Amino acid sequence: MRFNEDNLKAYVVPNSAVKGSTPVLRNLTNIESLDVLLHPEIKTAYDIFWESAKKIPNEPYLGYRPFDKEKKAFMPYEYLKYGEVAKRVTNLGAGLMHIRLLHCNSKEEKELIERRQWSVAIYSNNRPEWMITEFAIVSQSLYSVGLCDTLGESSMEYIINHSEITVVVGILDKTIKVLRSIKKVPNIRAVVVIESTQDINEKLRASKPLGDSVLSIGDLRKISKDLGVDLYTIDEVEAIGNASGIKDFPPKPDDIYTILYTSGTTGNPKGVVLTHTNYTVSARSYGKRMRKNGVTPVMISYLPLPHGYGRMIELVITLEGGILGYSTGDVSKIFEDCQALQPTFFPGVPRLLTRLYDQFTAATVNAPGIKGIIARKAFSEKLENMKNGKGYFHSIWDNLIFNKTRSFISNRLNLIMSGSAPLSAEVADFLRIALCTEISEAYGSTETSATGTMQIMDDTSIGHVGPPNFGMEIKLRDVPEMNYLVTDEPKPRGEVCIRGKAIFREYLKDKENTENSLIGDGWFATGDIGRMNEDGTISIIDRKKSIFKISQGEYVAPEKIEIILMRHPLVMQAFVHGFSDKSYIIGIIVPDPTTFVPWAANILDTETKLTGNAEKDSGTFESLCKNKNIVAKYLEEISEFSRKSGLVGFEILKKIYLEHIPFDIEGNGLLTPTFKLKRGDAIKAYKKIVENMYASP
Q1: Residue where one domain finishes, among candidates 250, 285, 312
Q2: For residue 566, what are the domain limits?
Q3: How do residues 63-97 score in pLDDT, each as one tens digit?
Q4: Are residues 582 and 685 in the same domain?
């Protein structure tokens, strides 16, 4: 492939191609060195926080919406200032050190504690105390491990033991979970409850999670003590720290900053060990890419903080002296929080953005009658303007239509960053128009500190995730077992490999996986399949590790097929599966109710007119999913779509099961916190259904 020199968005390192690999790509700003993001004064997460806290102590930092018990409603955002947070960070950090020293059993253990670099778990929803605890941990050269329910109770226990956690800071219901599992996590010495004493007492009396005998913090403390664990409130630990005389103990750049556990699709999660250098470089790479315009960045916090994307973005906002507004916790009401906060920046995931797209298109371009006609004309004109470099605004059409859709999130919005999975071209373009804002796709992983590539500013082209981000390098390498080769025409294809200062140190206590992923000379093999484009951008087209073989010897990449299926307007979610002794593949499909129900009802109406039969409750979503004729028509529809999308015969589903219950994070647990399918869990959940599908004629 020849690169398009007139439109090159990356630097091609001369003479860097070797057999089986593409040339190496760099960001255009770091042609000579990957050290461009190393800063003489900002080398750690500690430095990032204190740089802003000292410069702007009186500016707002962490926002939250108090709940009015009388009105039974969330109030407008209130804010903790940088200076207030700094005081709490120092006191809490000192307090954590002090209470850990109270619980050591030997001189040797005391020496280990005083050397720092031990772990503290944070087990909480997104809230100001998450970030306060994070920086408190950092202030003593300790490192955090985030826990979350979406990994399951057994994974929570595994992580606590695997990372040798002795102290857990969490909200009440999470600390109760830890206490209930204490026999399986015997190293826990202390738990710190984030809520106040009054809130703890009210919650214990209201929900009685431990029965009628535990109605106050005193009762809870006694139970905890009987289990060999001391229980504190966060206010108490801050007071202990304030009186302790323990000073900050700043970390070094190569010290561990955090261990993030990958949610994974099979087996136990892997602990990704990340240093301060890793995350500081990642934060600075995205900070350089943020659209500033002299405006203080404001971001809504809702992405899970035990995971790389959410954590990195919060560090970026802190680096930029911005404001973090924490959501109230109900994802279905995230946009209500946005309207209250008015963010300038929204970190998105394709699943949420696609829902927004469905909602907006139904009300505008897909609306019936004159409303739809006008909206389609408005969209067409704005799209042409945008593609011609005239920006995201249009004085006439915005006043008439798109100011309303824009205000659904924020009238101050200037950037949406989409990560964790590919975003469809249709969704990206429509939301740029409807929200009057830049949408930029980014690509990274836990192991790369969430950085890797990102579209350059105001790049409205589609189908790629941009060139290498600041301070990063990218290349592709052959994956012959999947027929992805760097010699492919018209464009090279292969496994995406990334190098830079943001690459993780190792998988905790897992030498085999570390050696399989860190392939030498600083390169990390991501397991993602990419395509290198003529302009130096990368497109993510497949996943390496999920492939399986069917009986005729063909390799099937289910994620590739699922991504294509989910582009169809009738499909919301898809799970593709098969076996080595079977000659075809099958799918579990969750239809999109907004499009599927009217489509299926139309088929039923036609059948009723022809046969005169109409079943009771035949029009409900669940009954439509079970209707054999509907299922058959649906299979025809997506099979034709699959062929037109370029899938070959063995990649087209032969049988499907329509599931009316969506895959989710907490209900059936089939999605990771970043909304990726947990393939191993899906295989278990649908085992009998899959067996029946293969057994039926």
Answers
A1: 312
A2: 548-695
A3: 999 999 999 999 999 999 999 999 999 999 999 99
A4: yes
